[in-house]
Write a structure and sequence with these properties.
There is one protein chain. 35% of the residues lie in helices and 15% in strands. It has 2 domains: 3-148, Glycogen Phosphorylase B (Rossmann fold), CATH 3.40.50.2000; 164-346, Rossmann fold (3-Layer(aba) Sandwich). It starts with 8 loop residues before the first strand and ends in a 5-residue tail after the last helix. The strands form 2 sheets. It has a 6-stranded parallel β-sheet with strand order 3-2-1-4-5-6, with helices on one face. The chain has a 6-stranded parallel β-sheet with strand order 9-8-7-10-11-12. The chain has helices spanning 18-34, 71-80, 96-99, 137-148, 164-173, 195-209, 221-234, 247-254, 266-273, 287-290, 303-311, 335-346, and strands at residues 9-13, 39-45, 61-65, 85-91, 106-112, 128-129, 180-183, 213-216, 239-240, 259-262, 278-282, 300-301. With 351 residues, the protein is α/β, with parallel strands linked by helices. Helix 1 (18-34) packs parallel to helix 4 and helix 6 runs parallel beside helix 12 (335-346).
């Protein structure tokens, strides 16, 4: 897009999930750098909004909604945007729920995904489609900036804002020394690592390095129960903050940790945005697709093994969005493998 046709208004639509919303931030930064005068509006889900709410102080306008469930929900959003016409709408989510949002947003250009990610008739709701997506989700989001004419830098620019009140809370609640952050539960149980292995890992890590450990997670009964099982089984003192932190506090806390260990969760992307080492545990999906962007060296990735052994398929031939929906997948990850990643970070001073 030439300077004469530089966009003056850009609308992003990405409602969820927490980690995906964090991974949209480098796209926002590219747009801000290329067209600093452009008005950026982001239609976002209420649950995920707090992780990026600080961008409002930098001029990003948020239209915060509950996930639409009925026609009246869509009409309410369309009324909010009535009378506005954007130069471009970037359709960053492809599902029935979000695809039905796009007809109610007026824009000169509506850019959506190519064949590999165009689910639920996505291509019928957009006017332009991208090439097939590169392996990682962040690169897929950055393709939207390229479609508008921006040049994407080699290094992702995160600059995820930290809420001052949440940071002050962390100063009061967290250890005043380097600590290990643990986010044990993913959004789906199939992506969880067994609690007894978490307990063994924390016991071995404590014996070796004596660093404080802090457990993070949401308030669901599953997460609370798993945290208690891990703490009891490890036999070491841990600070259990599962269900006790809001998203802004989680963001501030992960900016302070020495490292994070987690399965495929939003916490992994938050910590990575602050340059914290992430020991990521992946088997349902590959780390190359959903892992900590640009920093996959500390991940334990069993996706290919799970595809071969549990599904009898060739990992090289499965489609981009393939997943191993099998509870046995995460059990392929051993404690020794995860402990080795800790050793790379803590004993050899890696950051």
């Amino acid at each position: 897009m030439s300077p004469a046709h530089a966009p003056k208004s850009i609308c992003l639509v990405r409602l969820s999930a927490l980690g995906d919303v964090v991974m949209v931030v480098p796209l926002v930064r590219v747009l801000q750098a290329r067209w600093p005068e452009a008005r950026i509006t982001w239609v976002i889900g209420k649950a995920a909004h707090p992780v990026v709410a600080g961008l409002a102080s930098e001029g990003v306008e948020f239209v915060v909604i509950d996930k639409p469930r009925r026609l009246g929900d869509y009409r309410a959003l369309w009324r909010t945007l009535k009378g506005r016409r954007f130069d471009a709408v970037l359709c960053l989510q492809a599902s029935w729920r979000t695809n039905l949002i796009y007809p109610g947003i007026a824009a000169k250009r509506k850019v959506g995904y190519g064949r590999d990610r165009a689910k639920d008739l996505h291509r019928f709701f957009v006017r332009e489609t991208l090439p097939d997506s590169p392996p990682h989700l962040v690169d897929g989001f950055l393709q939207f900036a390229e479609a508008l004419g921006a040049v994407v830098p080699q290094r992702a620019d995160w600059r995820l804002p930290i809420d001052p009140e949440a940071d002050a809370w962390c100063g009061r609640m967290l250890p005043n020394q380097p600590f290990i952050a643990v986010s044990a539960c993913a959004s789906k149980p199939e992506r969880d690592w067994p609690a007894e292995r978490w307990a063994e890992l924390l016991r071995r890590v404590h014996e070796r390095w004596q660093l404080p450990t802090v457990l993070f997670g949401g308030p669901s009964p599953r997460e609370v129960s798993v945290a208690r099982e891990i703490a009891a089984g490890s036999g070491v003192a841990v600070l259990d903050l599962v269900g006790k932190t809001r998203i802004p506090e989680l963001v501030a806390a992960l900016s302070r940790c020495r490292l994070l260990v987690a399965p495929d969760t939003g916490a992994a992307h938050i910590a990575n945005a602050f340059g914290r080492p992430v020991v990521g545990l992946y088997a349902v999906a590959p780390a190359s697709r959903t892992g900590p962007y640009g920093n996959l060296g500390f991940c334990v990735d069993k996706f290919s093994q799970a595809v071969r052994e549990l599904q009898g398929l060739d990992p090289a031939s499965v489609p981009w969005a393939h997943r191993v929906h099998d509870p046995r997948a995460m059990q392929l990850i051993t404690v020794d493998e995860v402990f080795t990643k800790f050793d790379l970070i803590l004993s050899r001073g890696e950051t």
